[in-house]
Write a structure and sequence with these properties.
With 573 residues, this protein is an alpha/beta fold. The chain has helices spanning 11-22, 82-92, 106-121, 152-164, 169-181, 230-242, 267-283, 314-320, 358-392, 397-417, 422-437, 439-456, 464-482, 492-507, 512-529, 553-572, and strands at 27-30, 33-36, 38-39, 46-53, 70-76, 98-103, 126-131, 183-191, 209-212, 223-226, 254-261, 287-288, 292-294, 303-311, 324-325, 330-331, 338-339. The protein is globular. The chain starts with 10 loop residues before the first helix and ends with a helix.
């Protein structure tokens, strides 16, 4: 388990501060992560990578000459917010465009895509290459749905080397896609990891058993077997990866094997496994080139390993072997660097508090009260929501909702104190929830609060009609933003009946409190009914049957929020 921390809620901030203090030769801090502390003689395309914290050396450990220009660092196992991505990308940008690259997880896709859109609006040419190397997470004909694990190293290194050699953005993007297309990975785990302050691991594996294909956040694997010998494990990994050889790679081609420790499987054990990996690849007629054995994409103290195979061609060979210098990965020598003059971090996303009508300021005070109550409720429910999420997800929904709601409540309170109206208070709260909550739920709740605020405005009193319209906008935004529909076993299954019932009851003449109570009942019933559904989206998609009998945590948490807000509305009546 993770033993060394101060305040668990401040773990990432403390870790980043220590990392920067130890790594000033390579990085400097900016809002949302780190960027290079030096530049070359000529500007290059900026390669910006990132994801949730807890996977070092991915992602900050790979920032430096010949590799990434910046790393966005989300909360523990939670995607960074769009605001954080924009901040790091702008700081890393050298005038030749930005390539964003990250593992293919729903929350990361939502946040990074938002950031890409905003960067393009600001006149910065921005492209994206998601990493999809994990063969266990989707079948070959759906490779675009696969998640990214230790193959991140390959794609980031290729893109960074191409940028360092002066390639333009079109070519850097092309080469990163080529690297992803020629990379395959498979992982196994013997036990789960424990987040700072937690008393139980995110998941467990039965004693004497091994989960095959388990993800780096604890997503369930595709199989469970008795723990094999090191040689038997090597055979399992090599055989399954060779069976997925890229179509354009020769059976006797050149392969870079990367044996990655996930946290508590240490180097001597890895070398025992690698000895068998090397022998099996050679016996298969594959030419082994520049193998790597170590920790490249970890998961705190997870007991597990993964094997990645990169099938080289001439272009990838040159880029893989190009010089680089980062805190965690170095090759050859990199010269001609100059220290970047540190400037104040330009955070242009901070919204000022504008004028607001007195009626709207009163509504904003109710918003802040409701968010305080929601945060307190989610503190109480975090463990149960995490337990539900562990069944077919990764166990962090409760933690993410807890962190996001706390941040939203604090941001709304500050805004109200400064004289904000309802729209501005909700805008600040939504941005804070997305920043601190992270993940898919953080992105969605952030978007929901912002859209609700846009409907309420800062200039008018908030009546039942305006509130219902705002809830409808929340529903529409989530369905558009997350692409889920009713029946996918997501929060949509609860928010649609809530929004529709609220609208219908108000149209039939019910008072707001009565309509809201009926709508909350509908949301709760719908959330409970998701126990009979099979997940069709998100991390639980490929393991949906595991969650049969258990409701969706996102739907449950939404229903709980509606009940909590109802109590606040009654107090304010």
């Amino acid at each position: 388990m993770t033993r060394l921390f101060n305040d668990p809620d401040e773990f990432v901030e403390d870790s980043v501060a220590g990392f920067v203090a130890a790594s000033g030769r390579w990085v400097r801090p900016v809002t949302g992560g780190v960027v290079r502390s030096t530049r070359g003689a000529e500007p290059t395309v900026a390669v910006v990578v990132g994801g949730g914290s807890g996977h070092y050396p991915a992602f900050a450990g790979l920032v430096g000459p010949g590799f990434a220009h910046g790393a966005v660092m989300g909360n523990l196992f939670a995607s960074p917010s769009a605001h954080q991505v924009r901040s790091v990308a702008k700081a890393a940008h050298e005038g030749r465009g930005v390539l964003l690259s990250y593992g293919n997880y729903a929350g990361d896709v939502l946040h990074f895509t938002q950031a890409q859109d905003r960067l393009r609006e600001a006149g910065i040419d921005c492209r994206t290459v998601t990493v999809t190397d994990d063969i266990s997470s989707a079948p070959p004909h759906e490779r675009e749905k696969r998640r990214g694990i230790a193959g991140d190293l390959v794609v980031f290194k290729t893109a960074g080397a191409a940028a360092e050699q002066g390639h333009d953005l079109d070519d850097v993007e092309r080469l990163a896609r080529l690297a992803n297309d020629r990379t395959r990975s498979l992982g196994v785990a013997f036990g789960g990891c424990t987040l700072p302050g937690a008393t139980e691991p995110l998941f467990t594996v039965p004693q004497g058993r091994m989960a095959v294909g388990l993800g780096i956040h604890g997503e369930p694997g595709i199989d469970e077997v008795d723990i094999p010998t090191a040689a038997e494990l090597a055979q399992l990994l090599v055989e399954r990866l060779l069976a997925e050889r890229p179509d354009d790679a020769a059976p006797t081609g050149r392969v870079v094997p990367i044996l990655n420790g996930l946290g508590s499987v240490k180097y001597e054990e890895l070398y025992v496994v690698y000895g068998a990996v090397d022998r099996l690849l050679t016996e298969a007629g594959v030419e082994v080139v520049s193998p790597e054995v170590g920790e490249f994409c970890t998961s705190f103290d997870m007991a597990g390993v993964s094997l990645t195979l990169l099938w080289l061609d001439d272009e990838l060979d040159r880029l893989w072997h190009a010089s680089c210098d980062t805190p965690a990965f170095r090759r050859g020598s990199v010269d001609g660097r100059v220290v970047v003059t540190t400037v104040a971090d330009d955070d242009d996303e901070i919204e000022t508090i504008g004028p607001a009508a007195e009626e709207s300021r009163r509504a904003a005070a109710v918003v802040a009260h409701a968010l305080d109550a929601v945060a307190a409720m989610l503190d109480d429910q975090a463990d149960e929501l995490g337990r539900i999420d562990r069944i077919a997800g990764d166990g962090d929904h409760g933690i993410g909702m807890q962190r996001g709601s706390r941040a939203a409540a604090a941001a709304a309170s500050r805004a109200v104190t400064a004289g904000a109206g309802a729209r501005t208070a909700l805008q600040h709260a939504g941005d804070a929830w997305a920043d601190k909550g992270g993940g898919t739920s953080g992105a969605i709740w952030g978007e929901m609060l912002v859209d609700l605020g846009a409907a309420l405005g800062d200039d008018d009193a908030v009546d039942a009609s305006a509130l219902s319209a705002g809830v409808g906008r929340m529903k529409d935004a989530v369905m558009s933003f997350g692409k889920a529909t009713v029946g996918d076993k997501t929060m949509i299954d609860a928010i649609v009946p809530f929004a529709d019932t609220l609208r219908d009851r108000l149209a039939q003449g019910d008072a707001l409190l009565d309509a809201w109570a009926t709508a909350a009942d509908a949301a709760q019933a719908a959330a409970e009914a998701t126990a009979q559904l099979t997940a069709r989206l998100g991390r639980a998609r490929t393991h949906g049957d595991r969650s049969l009998g258990t409701p969706d945590p996102g739907a449950v948490s939404f229903a709980l929020v509606t009940r909590t807000v109802l109590d606040v509305l009654k107090e304010d009546a």
